[in-house]
Structures are given as C-alpha cells and as structure tokens.
UniProtKB/TrEMBL annotation:
Native source organism of the sequence: Paenibacillus germinis
Protein name: Nitrite reductase large subunit
PANTHER family assigned: NITRITE REDUCTASE (NADH) LARGE SUBUNIT (PTHR43809)
NCBIfam families xref list: nitri_red_nirB (TIGR02374)
Domain Nitrite/sulphite reductase 4Fe-4S: 626-763
Keywords: 2Fe-2S, 4Fe-4S, FAD, Flavoprotein, Heme, Iron, Iron-sulfur, Metal-binding, Nitrate assimilation, Oxidoreductase
Amino acid sequence: MKNKIVLVGNGMAGVSCIEQLLKIAPNHYEITIFGSEPHPNYNRILLSSVLAGDADMKDIVINDWSWYEENHITLHTGQTVNKIDTERKLVSTDGGITVPYDELIIATGSLPFILPLPGADKEGVIAFRDIKDCEKMIETAKNYKKAVVIGGGLLGLEAARGLLNLNMEVSVVHINEYLMNLQLDRTASFLLQQELERQGMKFLLKKNSESILGKKRVTGLRFTDGSEVEADLIVMAVGIRPNIALPKSSGIDINRGIVVNDFLETNVPNVYSIGECAEHRGVAYGLVAPLYEQGAVLAKRLAGVETAGYQGSVVSTKLKVSGVDVFSAGEYADKPDTRAVRVQDDFEGIYKKVVIREGKVIGAVLFGDISDGSRLFAMIRNGEDVTGKEKTVLLGDGGGNAKSGVEMVAAMSDDEIVCGCNGVSKGAIVQAVQEKGCSSVNDIKACTKASASCGGCKPLVADVLTYVLGEDGVKTVKEGICGCTTLGRDEVVEAIRGMRLTTTKEVMNVLEWSNTEGCSKCRPALNYYLGMVWPEEHEDERESRFVNERNHANIQKDGTYSVVPRMYGGVTTPKDLKKIAEIAEKYEVPLVKMTGGQRIDLLGVKKEDLPGMWADLDMPSGYAYGKSLRTVKTCVGSTFCRFGTQDAIGMGIQLEKRFEGLNTPAKVKMAVSGCPRNCAEATIKDFGVVAIDGGWELHVGGNGGTKLRGTDLLCKVKTEEEVLEWSGAYLQYYRETGKYNERTSEWVERVGLDTIKEALETKEDRTALVERIEKTLDLMKDPWKEIIEQQMLRETFVPMEEQSAAELV
C-alpha cells in the first residue's frame, strides 16, 4: 500500500510541489487534491490577461484535467475542506467527502482583503482574486461605464488596465502619494503614472476611502476629505491575508499565517503548509517565486531526499500591464547606509537604479527597459561583491560590457527559480537539456513550461541554454505564426505562392497544421495572405474574419454597432450632413460623434438595422472596422489657409479614393498637411504627406496610439503623380512583407527604413509594385452595397429568432 498524500488547495504553490514530487518519486504516494474552485490548476498571475481580453480560461490552465488522470491523482473540484482530524488523520469537505491521509499539505492560499467600509456589501463591489471575479467584471462592463479600483499596487493596476480594455472609465484610488510604493521608488512610480495616464487611467492619490454610496447597487465612493467619485463598479485590490480558517480548530499553530519551520512542517506531525497561507520566520509571501521555492524543499523532504531547509526568499516584481515594463527586486529605497547608481533617459522613457550596501547589490528598480532584471536579481540573491566596480553594474566596464548573462547563470544555484510564472528552476532546465536533448527556448518551453506564460524570462532561459551547451549548441527556432504550426510568416507565404494554394483549408492540409481547423490567430492571417498573393483566385473567407470585419461595423461593449460612412478627405456637403442627421433620427441613434479622422460616427446601432441604414445612407463604407485604409485626414491647405503651400484637401481625397477598401496587414491611417505646420498630424500616421515649397515630403511608419512613434522621412517629391506612385508602391511593399496584424510602425522598425528605400529606389521597382496593388484595387467592392444587394448576406443580420420564424413560414 502506498502512503497517502492529501493536498488541500489546487493552486499554483501546492500543485507545483506535487509536480516536483512526481519527478523525484513518481510512484511513492497515492495523491488526492481538493480545490474549492470548479477549475483545474490555473495560473492566477495571468488573470489580468483574461480580464484584458488577451487570454481566456483555457489559455491560463497550467495542468488540465488529463494531467491529473495521467498521474493517477484524485482531484475533487468544487469541494472546500472544512475539517482536519489530526488524531485520526482525516480531512472532510463541505460536500460530505472524508479522506484519510498519511501526509497532509495545506496550501489554501490567501483571501482578498475587503475594506470594512459602510456599503461594502452593495452590488457592484468585488475583489480581484479569481476567474469568478474576472467574469463579474467582464459582465459588468457590458452594462456600466464607470469603474473605481481601490489600491494602486501591482494587483490594482493590473485590474485597472483590464477594465480600460473593457472600455470602462477607470479611476485608481491610492492612500499613498505615489503608486506601487511597496515596489517602486518615487521616480519610477511617477514615470509609471505618466504612462498609465496616457493610456487613459485616472488617479486619486492620498485618498482615504470612507464609505460606498448607493442603495442596492454602488453609485460612488466618498473619501474622508468629503470629496466623492462616481462608480458603477468598485474593485478592491488593497492586499491579501493568509487563508487560515481551516487550521484554526485543528491544533495547528497560527500567527498571521500557518507557522512552519525551514522544512515547511507545522507543529503537528505529518502536516505541512506552503504558499500564501504559510508563515516562515515571521514572513508570509504573496509572490509566486518564493512559494515555488518552498514547494521544491517540501517535495524533496517528502521524497526522502536530503535537502537544505528553506531559508526565505528575496522577492522581485514585474508589472505585466500592456505597454509598461517595470521591474523591482530587493531593497530599492535609499537609506543612510546605502548608495545607488542611477540611469535616467527622459527621451526614451528609461530609468534604472541599483542600490548597494557594503559593496553588495541589495536592490534594483527598472522602468522602460527591464532587460537587466534577471542579471541584477541574480546578483542580489548571490550577494556578489562589486566593491570598486559599482558603476559597471549598470554602465558596463568602460567598453560597454557588464557581466554577461551566462556568467550570472553560472553563479546561480540549481534551486533558483528562472521562470516565476511556472516555478521552473535553473536545475530543471539544465536537466531538460542534459537528459531530454532540449536545445532551444521552444524545446525548454514545451518540456518544462519555462517562458510559456508571460514570456519575461526568455532571455534568462536562453542564457541557461548557452551556459549548458555553449553558443554553438543552442538551436535558434523561429516561432510559427500561431501554435498550429512551426512555420513563420515568410515560409507560409512562400508555400502559398510556390504551391499555388488558394484556400485556408488547402494551406492547413498541405502544410500539415497540427490543428486541422486552425485557430483565431491563424485563420484571419491565412485569409489575408491568400488574398494578398492571389487577389483574383482567392475568394474571401468571411468566416475567417473577426466579428467587426464580418459585419462591416464596429461592435460596441453593449452588443450594438457603430457606422462610419466614407467622407473623402474629411470633406462633406450640407446635403450629406442633412441625410446623416435624418437617418440618425430614423434609427434612433443614441450618439453621433466626430472621430479623430474627421468622420461622423453613428454609435449604438442594432445589428438588424445595419443593412437598412447602409441603404438609406447610400454612402460608401468608411472601413472604420477593417484592417485596411481607414481615413486620410486633411487640413484645408492652400484652399483656404494663408499658410498653405499645396492643395492638401485635393491630395487627401485623391489618396483616399485611390486606396479605399484596400486590405492591409493592419489598419492604415493617412494624413495630408498643407504646410510644415502639420495641422493634420501627418507625422504620426502610417503614411503622412506634408506640403513644402515646390513639392511634398512623404513620411512613413508613424503611430499615434499607445505606442507613440513619429514618422521617418521616406523621400521628397515634386508632383502629385509622384505622391500617388510612391504611396502605392509603399503600401504594396508593406502588404507583401508585413506580418498579419503588424502596424507599419512595427514593420518599419523590423525590416528597416533602408530596406524599404532600397525596395522603392528605382522607377521600375515602384511601377511593378503599383501594378500589383492596382490589380487588387480593381477587384474591390463596397461591402455595404454588396450586403444590401444580396439577400443571403442580408439574412445574416436578422436575429436568430426571426430567422427561425421565417423558416417555419
């Protein structure tokens, strides 16, 4: 008979311990796991990705149902253990299950701290701790607009970013005067605040919450200074507390958490505790890396393998908010007995600080560029002496060389965690290389899960590989366009050309896709590549497009759509304005708004009303929903402006009429400014035209979004015909070499401006590109008109219940 292990808690810490135990002693125990949630083991760190819409539940599962079955583990989900009988060695659940144990691991994690405010029990007040909380927030965002997050720490900012992605107005309330004050210094915090404000977040700092307003549902939050903020949703992210309800009545010592020694043993024989519920040497850790380190020690203890005890952890933090890179580790604050090396570049948005005490690196803060994070964290953990060479830690040795990543890996112990998200140690990666033949980062990912989640540890994983195999032994593997294939964009396009493949099914079959149906990432990409290569032969596959492109309108958070008719160059007439107003009244449009591209947006249109509205408007689609040319913004130029040097309006209208409806890898925005004053903001567009005396400047690769990028000057030309020629050649070269969903700003940086200039250098090259783009443009049809004219397409806009009734008739 095998000894029985019972794990209470199906979270990351406990299951990681079981994973390591199975590797060391695979057949030693009969294992039973209890989890209160109805899910298998998932990565709680990535909940913010689920909330932000970058992942769903299946994407963050660490161990799926089959893993438990394959390892002969009995898993009870939806069962909360509510009693431990330490004398008879039994655990019982609220669902009536009682199981005996020989060894018991308590890994019940933590509970979110809910501020005891008047009104905290109102509808719309939640925490941010599990999948259920994410689902509540996503559902709330469909019907409500204003969200308030209480807590300006790591968790609060991740929740706020997710709510912004759900199109809510988000205010973050923080009691301190600067954000993430437990992880960042003032400088890094202020840089972070500025970046998040640019993304649309609002901050209420040095605010102490007093009460939650509203009757049944929350309507706002009042502060102790008498001020208030409106809220339809309040998310409390003010911290966590160890979940110690279970051991309280079991004779197990508890303080803030369940008290354990260096071998994670409680005061009761055969009972252990790890994770956020455990307290070791007076510390209860709330970050995942220390919990994995605890699990590694306990796994060896249970397997009978000699091991040093757990000595506590130096913790590090990474902020995983879209567009923001922040890292901190160790002691980051300035103190009388510390000195610091700082680097700050306001132009690039980079700040780095390393704190040193008695010649040793004890802490670091990085903002904007966190590539040194793994190296600095290793120095902190190893206590490396940098006396006399303190500046080289950040600035290099004068030759620009700081200590290499491989040298830092050599100093790491095998137990040190490389991948914090999945608890993979250096030793586990070394073992995968030596015993399983892994020779690339992708191999390591598949074998150990290192770098499979947030991906922040990829550079360190690569350093470990180089440390074991040497530079010549590491295999560089290009990542495929999605998880269904190992083929990259260029290989797929070449195969489409070389084998004359014309449908996505053909591509998947011939190129041996692992998922024969493809996925939401590759199907739209293949549909674009096929249309780009074979504009005449390939029939656009509507089912492979995203919902906005299928319905030719932008879906809004309440399920309605927005309609943006084409207005060339932002120019309209009183007659068209009157028509738009009358149709807005006819269809009871709740909001009419001017867009940043000088168009009129009719918001709140029901799906079934779209074809009728398009017919009544009798205007071309503005393609405000597509990966195509959106708008050409113009100023009045020489037509009216006394500073204008060229006809910006006329040039803009020509460009828009020439390229409307053109399918591109990602959305494309253009602008034409009539003089260098640049009122049309042409130098932050994908393609910008700026009038100068005697000609035009052509600018490329700009982006005015969250990743702001100014344009690069492509060339100067003299005539309008040259503007049209160069713009056509440029757009076709982007179409033929850009990755699907890659904006021109990213594309220009990837392929290089010099490469683009070389491809467009000669008249012959430009003419060939223009001829290919014209072949595509000749096939363009206005989608609104096509749907109006084809009954079968119109029927797709009829509600399902009406379709069913029609079928009965």
